[in-house]
Write a structure and sequence with these properties.
Elements (H helix, E strand, L loop, with lengths): L4 H19 L6 E5 L6 H17 L3 E5 L6 H8 L7 E5 L2 H8 L11 E17 L7 H10 L3 E4 L5 H13 L4 E4 L3 H10 L4 E5 H9 L3 E7 L24 E9 L4 H15 L2 H9 L3 E2 L4 H22 L5
Helix pairs in contact: 2-9, 4-11, 7-8
């Protein structure tokens, strides 16, 4: 049977909305895997960003913590996920160093993910106990040349550890690294005076500095951080190049279609620009970034190469 011409012409128009709905993204709640414990820097930033991001996308975002092996357990889970934008990874700076440290990985960090954006950074600070006889960074360096100093970090191969190594190499000093299982634990011992100093996040060090039990000496950032403008950078104090920070950054599985990546990038960067979100991140001592996918991909490539060199030169090993 031959359809009337007018009806035949209308069929594609009737079908178009159905096709658009089938191709819409997202079609169901989005899952964001954080490969670290709840309450940490990356997890806290993710939970500050995702509610409004989900509203922009029209679907809720469910944050799941999948911990273990320096973040590679959660990373591997996302690497194996379907590249449909429904499962994402909010990873930290271990994303750069894991390829140089971990053996037996079941995926390749360099090819398994599509970088979307560096969402936020958490600059590291050098804080020292209140009674340490060094009031400035130059005085700290001179003291370290005369006597051993014990400096705590969030753990082996963390941003704090790598920053500490980078600082020691640049300043020509040897510092005794004391790894902990998190910045809060290191800060507790710094407050008690059992550590000479810590290389940790502002979020962890801030409360004990505010209580008078420790002092900030320098921040590992290219410029002073608005939340703590009184802390000078390492470069200002004569030790340039110390800019290692913790971060939280969004990735999708490799092969995710470009339109979906663009939708995600727009949602997260617009969310980072919202004043309530910025205020919440400031409470976490997090600095919003929102880089383009191209900028972030370049940052990841260059950072991975730099961390590989640092790991080799300092003979860094995991626990």
């Amino acid at each position: 049977m031959t359809l009337p011409r007018r009806l035949a012409l209308s069929l594609p128009l009737l079908a178009a909305p159905a096709i658009a709905r089938a191709q819409a993204y997202p079609t169901r709640p989005i899952r964001v895997v954080v490969p670290f414990a709840a309450g940490g820097a990356a997890d806290s930033a993710t939970r500050a960003i995702t509610p409004r991001m989900g509203e922009r996308l029209g679907q809720p975002i469910v944050v799941e913590n999948r911990t273990g092996a320096g973040g590679s357990v959660g990373g591997g889970e996302v690497a194996r996920a379907a590249p449909d934008g429904q499962t994402l990874l909010m990873d930290a700076s271990s994303h750069l160093v894991n390829p140089s440290l971990l053996r037996g990985l079941t995926f390749d960090y360099a090819t398994a993910f599509a970088p979307i954006t560096q969402a936020v950074t958490f600059p590291q600070v050098l804080a020292v106990k209140a009674d340490l006889p060094a009031r400035t960074l130059p005085e700290f360096i001179e003291l370290a040349k005369r006597q051993p100093l014990n400096i705590g970090t969030q753990g082996n191969a963390t941003a704090g550890h790598l920053g500490l190594v980078q600082f020691g190499l640049a300043a020509g000093i040897e510092l005794t690294h004391v790894p902990y299982r998190g910045g809060a634990d290191a800060a507790r011992d710094l407050a008690a005076g059992t550590l000479d100093g810590c290389f940790i996040t502002m979020l962890s060090a801030g409360p004990i500095v505010d209580s008078g039990r420790a002092r900030f000496l320098a921040v590992s950032a290219p410029r002073r951080v608005p939340l703590r403008p009184e802390i000078p950078t390492f470069a200002e104090l004569g030790t340039p190049g110390i800019e290692i920070a913790e971060w939280a950054s969004l990735f999708a599985p490799a092969g995710t279609p470009a339109p979906i990546l663009a939708t995600l990038h727009k949602a997260v960067t617009e969310t980072l620009a919202e004043e309530p979100v910025k205020a919440r991140l400031a409470q976490l001592a997090a600095v919003p970034v929102g880089s383009s996918p191209e900028e972030f991909a370049r940052y990841v490539r260059e950072g991975r190469a730099a961390m590989a060199g640092l790991v080799r030169s300092a003979n860094i090993r995991v626990d």
